[in-house]
Amino acid sequence: MVIPRSAKVLTSDSDYALVSVTLFKKCEEEFKVACRERRFTVRDFKFKADDIQASEEEYARLRTELEDQHVNFVKWCETIFGEAVIAQMHLKAVRSFVESVLRYGLPVNFEVAMILPQAKAESRLRAALQEMYGHLGGNWASSSEKDGETTAIPGIAQEDFYPYVFSFLNIQT
């Protein structure tokens, strides 16, 4: 006879389940036979205090090891993130240099600036930059904006064309 409400599913997956059941001693063999008839595997639980203590010690050791690894991982992420940002800024600088040389030729004579516009001021900033550097774009920049047409520029068909070198940097604050 199974003690009511004593059956507890300890763990399960798609094929199997491990269930703990408490029985009276006199019904143990009868329960095992009934389980085997239904193709269940029955195993006796043998309480060992040493195993439980070893399991708790192992859990505590793994917990401290996890905390140590977490601290090391956070330090590593902070270091690598800084290096990744530096690498990204170097790539932006190289791209600006190469694109400036390709657009305006040699000798190299240009200025690089990082501008962070205020909220909703990007269109005014673009207009001011267009006014200052519009003459550098040649026919590509002036004709397409005035006529309302889109002129296909070889090599930059996927991006907007500006008479100045523009590279977007996403900064989340």
Automatic annotation (TrEMBL):
The keyword Ligase does not apply. SUPFAM superfamilies: Vacuolar ATP synthase subunit C. GO terms for cellular component: vacuolar proton-transporting V-type ATPase, V1 domain. GO terms for molecular function: proton-transporting ATPase activity, rotational mechanism. It comes from the Eukaryota. Keywords: Hydrogen ion transport, Ion transport, Transport. The keyword Zinc does not apply. InterPro entries: ATPase_V1-cplx_csu, Vac_ATP_synth_c_sf. PANTHER family: V-TYPE PROTON ATPASE SUBUNIT C. Subunit of the V1 complex of vacuolar(H+)-ATPase (V-ATPase), a multisubunit enzyme composed of a peripheral complex (V1) that hydrolyzes ATP and a membrane integral complex (V0) that translocates protons. V-ATPase is responsible for acidifying and maintaining the pH of intracellular compartments and in some cell types, is targeted to the plasma membrane, where it is responsible for acidifying the extracellular environment. Subunit C is necessary for the assembly of the catalytic sector of the enzyme and is likely to have a specific function in its catalytic activity. V-ATPase is a heteromultimeric enzyme composed of a peripheral catalytic V1 complex (components A to H) attached to an integral membrane V0 proton pore complex. Belongs to the V-ATPase C subunit family. This is V-type proton ATPase subunit C. The lineage of its organism: Eukaryota, Rhodophyta, Stylonematophyceae, Stylonematales, Stylonemataceae.
